[in-house]
Amino acid sequence: MSAPAGTPLRPAVFLDRDGVLNRPLIWDGLAHAPRKPAEFEVYPDAPAACRELHAAGYVLVVVTNQPDVARGTLPLADLEAMHARLRAAVPEIARIEVCLAPGQGKPDPEDRRRKPAPGMILDAAAALSLDLSRSWMVGDRWRDIDCGHNAGVRTVFIDLGYAEKLHAAPDFTVPGIAAAARIILAQPERQKLNGPLLSP
Would residue 140 show up in a list of annotated catalytic residues for this protein? Predict the structure, then answer.
């Protein structure tokens, strides 16, 4: 459901989940999502970074591909349990957008939402009255950065040294979520707490 007409547009920070807010599983030099709630571990610095962004006036939206549900290797109940744990650790999250499309070349109606396509960002922007011209995407994979570019938002890449290359250049590269928050909060268009955020 969209916000009422006339609602002022707000800036947002769109956050990938695995590798940004929680530790991914790593094998063969690539990141993979946890397969069960016991493996889901929120980074210690993620809650504070998100609190700072929220206090500065940014709406926080998680945008995450979770194809393992459609592939049958992750029960939906386990995914929901992980997201309950994430919301408990980071209550400032306004919305969690999830794409369950399986990928691997299998057509799915959800494909418009599967990163690098921008559908999850566009859907959240419509529902929450978000101003994409003042918004950011933070991610640790090439799909996240391409998704941000495709949605017209600025991008921060968290470089965890994966064995893959970026397709598009991010606006900033940092080692983790705390540094990403510092970059965003340091931008000249951000005003003091509760003040207006102006377009560059």
Answer: no
